[in-house]
Specification:
The chain has seven helices and five strands, in the order βββααααββααα. By secondary structure, the chain is mainly alpha-helical. The chain folds into two domains: 111 residues, no CATH class; 41 residues, no CATH class. The strands form two sheets. Strands 1-2-3 form a three-stranded antiparallel beta sheet. Helix 1 runs antiparallel to helix 2 and helix 5 packs across helix 6. It is elongated and about 70 Å long. It starts with a strand and ends in a 5-residue tail after the last helix.
């Protein structure tokens, strides 16, 4: 974590958290600070999109810029020297998934291009059972207006209720 411009770690998290600065060479400190910015931007982007089901183009642009700057300066996150350094952080290993290997090179994960916390396109349901599954997957509840929206144009709410009644017991 970064506190007061210093890289360090927290101990005694459950009682009285204490920050411990790490004695690292300046080159590693600047790399870790850049990584922390990427991590925080990623979490802001993912959390916003997951909670709001809306894209956040400004934060996505920032994440791309931070990542591109990091790669330009130190190379891909998954390069051994970077991966070893990032794994020092509690969530460092999960950040390595911001890249994937294709054809011997590392490329950006999908989140750099589009939302991954929700579907960009609505599904289409062939029958009320499929609409029910889509509603439960998206909202965790039965949302009749959404379900009728997914079904063919001439579907009525009453017909949907009748068709799924046995499944809702």
């Amino acid at each position: 974590m970064v506190q007061g411009g210093q890289i360090g770690y927290l101990s005694n998290l459950h009682l009285s958290p204490t920050f411990h600065p790490m004695d690292l060479p300046l080159s590693r400190i600047s790399r870790l600070k850049a990584y922390v910015e990427i991590r925080e931007s990623y979490h802001r982007l993912y959390d916003y999109e997951a909670n709001n089901h809306l894209a956040d183009p400004e934060e996505r642009e920032k994440l791309n810029r931070l990542y591109d700057d990091f790669v330009r300066r130190w190379g891909a996150l998954n390069l051994q020297a970077n991966a070893d350094l990032l794994k020092m952080a509690a969530t460092g290993a999960e950040m390595l998934f911001l890249e994937r290997s294709e054809g011997g090179r590392y490329i950006k994960a999908d989140i750099f291009d589009h939302p991954t916390a929700f579907a960009l396109t609505e599904s289409v349901a062939a029958d009320p059972s499929e609409a029910l599954c889509a509603s439960l997957n998206k909202f965790g509840t039965v949302e009749l207006p959404y379900m009728t929206y997914l079904l063919p144009v001439n579907s009525k709410s009453e017909a949907v209720i009748k068709a799924i009644k046995e499944r809702l017991v």
